[in-house]
Amino acid sequence: MEHENIAVGLDIGTTKIVAMIGRKNEYGKMEILGIGKSKSLGVHRGVVNNITQTIQSIQQAVQDAEASSDMKISEVVVGIAGQHIRSLQHSDYITRSNSDEVIDEEDIDRLCNQVHKLVMLPGEEIIHVLPQDFKVDGQAEVKEPIGMYGGRLEANFHVVVGQVSSIRNIGRCVKSAGLELSGITLEPLASANAVLSQEEKEAGVALIDIGGGTTDLAIFKDGIIRHTAVIPFGGNVITEDIKEGCSIIEKQAELLKIKFGSAWPGENKDNEIVSIPGLRGREPKEITLKNLSKIIHARVVEIIEQVYLEIKNYGHEDQKKKLIAGIVLTGGGAQLKHLKQLVEYISGMDTRIGYPNEHLAGDSDSETTSPMFATAVGLVLDSLNSRDKAAQPSTAVAMEEATGSEGVVQENENEEEEVMDNTPKERKRFFDKWAEKFKEFLDNAE
DSSP characters for 100-147? Predict the structure, then answer.
């Protein structure tokens, strides 16, 4: 089987690590060829805190994926999230020396590189610089300035910042698990690609990805990402609270949450009771479902209120920034019963549960279209799409030569870039540049 059109996403989460192998079929939809998941040990709130355990979990997930697809995985795209991610809005401008020439790629690159030089807090690094809209000589709301005349080019940017050490640790784990890092993507962006339709992104939508350790938020409007945030709570704090509140062990709390949990306490009768076996010859415990959902409700409300605060910070209440498509919930935490109703009640916004089947081939099984796998699906999609972009006609030759060899990145880097420059339309995503720098950095750090 040819490996050219195959990509592997690795979602390093707080509760589970998922490796997913996918490729595009002839209709441009994504087929999932293999999937492996393992319990994630050594990750806390999206941040690696035990390298050895994380490496083992990654290897386990990768082996599962290889076994289910009879393929060998050599390189992966990794998602990055965690409580250290923050985003800010920034506007910057450049003055062009020659305003008789039209604005081209290089001007935009210069502008973006200028943003990359922003001084961050110590230990932080800019991950993404995403231009929102441009101004040319004071003319506002320009979507695509290339080809226009003007002396002063300015833009509003959405800048995503993360902790250098956390990012390095993830890179370290992937490398030590014997894998090449072919790219890094912000997880809320990956989930959004898997779950949201283009219409929703145009109309304005907030994607809430409730994971085990963190809840990620990505807000789109007019087809552009406008705001991202990572809130350091997720499904695990709900489990913790059940464990504390009912004095049971974590495994039981997790099962209770999944089987009987509900975010809406009103609908359980007082007499519905679940009995939990005691430890080693102790009496079983009896827990009323009403109490269970009260505990869950309290926690979920707290998470949603924090998310809603972020949505307000973005300016949802401003008529022009209104999110017409409302909220989409995804991630493992989105499977909680009656969560949709609670979110609608708190936020007053239309809500749906997002399944990552937006770009999947029709015959994908229900297991892989579970909201739990949204990030993994998104990572594979991102990887396939950026490969498609890179392999447009003029660059196809260089890419084929590159993909033929094992070390895709090292061998043909220069050649690929030369070819890139001949295609004025194809702007290498700033993020790719960053990822390349980051890879070099990792190789040197070895």
Answer: TSPP-HHHHHHHHHHHHT---STTEEEEEEEEEEEEETTEEEES--TT
Backbone angles phi, psi at 392, to 5 degrees: -70, 155
End-to-end C-alpha distance for the chain, whole angstroms: 33
Domains of the chain by start residue, with CATH:
235-300 (3.30.420.40)
Q: Do 218 and 225 contact (CB within 8 A), yes or no?
A: yes
pLDDT at 129 over 50: yes
Percent of the chain scored above 70 by pLDDT? Answer: 86
Give the separation between CA 4 and CA 8, rounded to whole angstroms: 12
Q: Which residues pair with 353 in a beta bridge?
A: 329
Alpha helices for 26-94 (secondary structure H)? 51-69
* 374 Cα distance to chain centroid: 8
Three-state DSSP at 220 gives strand
Q: How far is CA 113 from the centre of its chain?
A: 24
- Counting every residue written for the chain, the total comes to 446
Q: Which residues pair with 77 in a beta bridge?
A: 9, 183
Contact 248, 242 (CB under 8 A): yes
Spell out where 211-283 has E strands. Answer: 215-221, 224-231, 273-276
The structure tokens 């993020």 sit at 431
Helix (H, G, I), strand (E, B) or coil at 208: strand
Please determine, for residue 163, whether its predicted confidence score (pLDDT) is greater than 50: yes
Residue 349's pLDDT band, with cuts at 50, 70 and 90, is very high
Strand 124-136 and strand 139-142: the pairing is antiparallel
The pTM of the whole model exceeds 0.85: no
Local confidence band at 446 (pLDDT 50, 70, 90 cut-offs): low
Q: What is the pLDDT of residue 241?
A: 95
Neighbouring C-beta atoms of residue 230, cutoff 10 Å = 28
- Asked if residue 205 lies in contact with residue 328, where contact means CB atoms within 8 angstroms, the answer is yes
Q: Are 356 and 190 in contact (CB under 8 A)?
A: no
